[in-house]
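ingest -> fold -> write
write: protein_1
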Amino acid sequence: MGAYLAQLTTNEMASLLLQMDVHAPSDVRVNIPITNFDEFYETFNIQAGGLMYRAPDERLVIW
């Protein structure tokens, strides 16, 4: 199952999937949620200005 989710798509295919699939694109399902965890920044030494950096006041906190 994991190999199915690790995919490369053309722009045309990505556009089609956005219109037809109820799920977010696979890179968004992974890359966006992890930016909400402080441990992510500590583990990978992500700094302000980095492509995956999200300011602390923009991170989602539920509990």
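write: protein_2
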Amino acid sequence: MLSFGTKQGVLFTIVGFLFWSIGIASLGGCSNGVETDERTGLLESETQSVFPLWVLYFIQTLAENLFVWIYLLIIGLVASFFSMFTVAELLKAILLTFAFSLISNLGMFGIGMIFASGSIRFKRMGQWATILQALLLMLSNVYFPVYNAFQEVIPYVGGIEIVRQIFLGHGVSLSKLMLFIVVNVIWFLLGILIFNYCIKKSAKTVHLTHFKLEKGDIYFNV
């Protein structure tokens, strides 16, 4: 059994942390973006776009993730000169994580959309998103292998396991890959459905144009 105190174990922990970090960036990017636009009054104008509102936030999240990966790549290259890992090892870890996180970020974006839906009706949902981020770090397989089947519902858990198996030379299990994809597609679609429903309901009952300034914050006028 692999010890996470070994060199390979440390590398596996890095892989887990990379998945978690980029996943949190996707979750926080869309949920915080909606909350910010809501408070500044931009949300109403964005709903008039020819594109669905979730598409705008999805593109925005992709752009933000691209910059995050560029930073990680640069940091990885620099770190290789001061760590126990070679450039090839760190590049392999970063590139594999990047490839599979393209799938897991769909699920994390979906969860972010669910929190964004809460922001449409309630203010300051960001603090709950922060709590969720900490819970995901503790409950997922960032530091240790999967020990409970229920962990698989977390979008990036399957990706971490797949990348670790590749490093061990076991290849990619088709069943694990399919489960990984299905979990993320479900979260992605669920998030979009809930977000679209809340936008339509809010437009009818809350009226996005009715804001008032109170003690430095913008609230819905309900």
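write: annotation protein_2
Helices lie at 7-40, 42-46, 53-79, 87-121, 126-139, 157-167, 174-205.
The longest helix spans residues 87-121.
pipeline exit 0
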